[in-house]
């Protein structure tokens, strides 16, 4: 009898221990995010979240060519639990693949600005709302305030003024623009700024219906993009993004055409630099020039995750005002979360654009996915054949759409 009691107690203890081990097992979630420059920042936020939620482990995953990797994983039905990716055509493809959680009736959407929700909705083209806009960016021209003062120039407000100060800087023996066209994606910063202000509000809609063309609408755009080469350095296609940030930080040029996301990297290279920003003025009437701004980061959850509630807890954590504020303060971005404002003095030059609504979205986010415009633009700037470039854009558009 004693042996039976001992055996029963032993079995009970073993079962209880196994149950305890299972219950004590942490939930592990993969957080796939596409921006290399925010790995440390997200690590910091993840550490804070895990302290508040000791039963959840967040494993950050940031890889080279995140868009390519994500598409490959989509095909393999191996989607990460949580995503933080750009609000561009790649997001639209994933949203249309019906692999993301639908937030349509979720109160979480009430915490973000409707304008940014509408922006990613237009890109996704779905009836469901599959992403939470988290942070917004802007295409700008960064300039060295001290060097501008030394030469007695101010931030330009029109295209003619912009060209005039470039000429003045060049005449002084200095470099107006540090171009980084080795990395083809950096060409899209000036490209989008020029296109957004010149293509016309109805271009995408009419091009989809074959009622207009790149040949018809993009001539001035191509010409102005090509003009920038006259004010770069001696190796415009041999320097990339990191080179540009470091060189601009160290006074190698007066200006750097780049998004506000680059400011943090520039200041890491030179904490003492005083930076100003302005929207690239493309038109000759100041009021007609708009700042290109879009959703820099969209938060989403895979509908195949085993831990949807835990994943949602992390997303809710990220959009808390204090955490969103910390994120945009560190990255000098704008928050899509209501009640969170960017007060960085470096960004005062584009404050008026947000206050007056002189903002427009990224044109290339609405091109058919797979056009490869950045590579086409680089090839154009090397060959400098406007006619050929515009015909290629039309051909590539038609080719992709007909697939």
Write the layout of secondary structure elements.
Layout: H1 2-24, E1 27-33, H2 39-52, E2 56-61, H3 66-75, E3 82-85, H4 89-96, H5 114-124, E4 132-144, H6 145-151, H7 159-171, H8 188-198, H9 203-208, H10 214-217, H11 219-227, H12 241-249, E5 255-259, H13 263-269, E6 275-278, E7 291-301, H14 308-318, H15 321-331, E8 334-335, H16 351-356, E9 359-360, H17 373-383, H18 386-401
Parallel strand pairs: 1-2, 1-3, 7-9
Antiparallel strand pairs: 3-7, 4-5, 4-6, 4-7, 4-8
Helix pairs in contact: 4-5, 8-11, 12-13, 17-18
Could you please describe the fold and organization of this structure?
This protein folds into 2 domains: about 25-135 and about 295-350, D-Maltodextrin-Binding Protein, domain 2 (3-Layer(aba) Sandwich); about 140-295 and about 360-400, 3-Layer(aba) Sandwich (D-Maltodextrin-Binding Protein, domain 2). About 45% of the residues lie in helices and about 15% in strands. The chain is built from 18 helices and 9 strands. The chain has helices at about 1-25, 40-50, 65-75, 90-95, 115-125, 145-150, 160-170, 190-200, 205-210, 215, 220-225, 240-250, 265-270, 310-320, 320-330, 350-355, 375-385, 385-400; strands at about 25-35, 55-60, 80-85, 130-145, 255-260, 275-280, 290-300, 335, 360. Strands 1, 2, 3, 4, 5, 6, 7, 8 and 9 form a 9-stranded mixed beta sheet that branches.
């Amino acid at each position: 009898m004693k042996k039976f009691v001992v055996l029963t107690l032993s079995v009970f203890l073993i079962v209880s221990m196994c149950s305890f081990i299972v219950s004590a097992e942490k939930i592990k979630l993969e957080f796939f995010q596409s921006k290399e420059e925010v790995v440390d920042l997200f690590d910091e936020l993840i550490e804070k979240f895990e302290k508040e939620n000791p039963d959840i482990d967040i494993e950050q995953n940031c890889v080279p060519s995140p868009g390519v990797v994500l598409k490959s994983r989509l095909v393999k039905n191996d989607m990460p639990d949580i995503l933080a990716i750009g609000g561009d055509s790649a997001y639209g493809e994933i949203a249309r693949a019906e692999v993301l959680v639908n937030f349509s009736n979720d109160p979480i959407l009430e915490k973000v600005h409707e304008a940014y929700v509408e922006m990613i909705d237009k890109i996704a083209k779905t009836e469901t709302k599959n992403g939470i806009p988290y942070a917004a960016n802007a295409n700008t021209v960064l300039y060295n305030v001290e060097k501008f003062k030394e030469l007695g120039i101010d931030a330009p407000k029109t295209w003619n003024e912009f060209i005039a100060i470039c000429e003045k800087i060049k005449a002084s023996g200095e470099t107006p623009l540090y171009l980084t066209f080795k990395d083809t994606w950096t060409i899209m910063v000036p490209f989008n700024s020029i296109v957004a202000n010149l293509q016309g509000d109805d271009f995408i809609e009419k091009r989809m219906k074959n009622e207009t063309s790149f040949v018809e609408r993009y001539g001035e755009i191509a010409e102005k993009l090509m003009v920038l080469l006259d004010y770069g350095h001696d190796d415009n296609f041999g320097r990339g993004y990191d080179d540009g940030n470091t060189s601009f930080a160290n006074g190698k040029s007066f200006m750097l055409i780049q998004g506000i996301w680059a400011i943090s990297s520039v200041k890491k290279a030179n904490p003492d630099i005083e930076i100003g920003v302005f929207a690239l003025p493309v038109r000759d009437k100041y009021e007609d020039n708009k700042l290109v701004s879009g959703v820099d980061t969209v938060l989403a959850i895979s509908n195949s995750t085993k831990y949807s509630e835990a994943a949602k807890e992390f997303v809710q954590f990220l959009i808390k005002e204090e955490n969103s504020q910390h994120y945009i303060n560190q990255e000098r971005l704008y928050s899509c979360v209501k009640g969170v404002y960017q007060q960085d003095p470096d960004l005062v030059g584009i404050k008026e654009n947000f206050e007056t609504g002189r903002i427009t979205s990224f044109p290339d986010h609405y091109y058919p996915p797979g056009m490869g415009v950045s590579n086409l633009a680089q090839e154009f700037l090397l060959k400098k054949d406007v006619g050929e470039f515009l015909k290629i854009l039309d051909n590539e558009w038609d080719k992709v759409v007909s697939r």
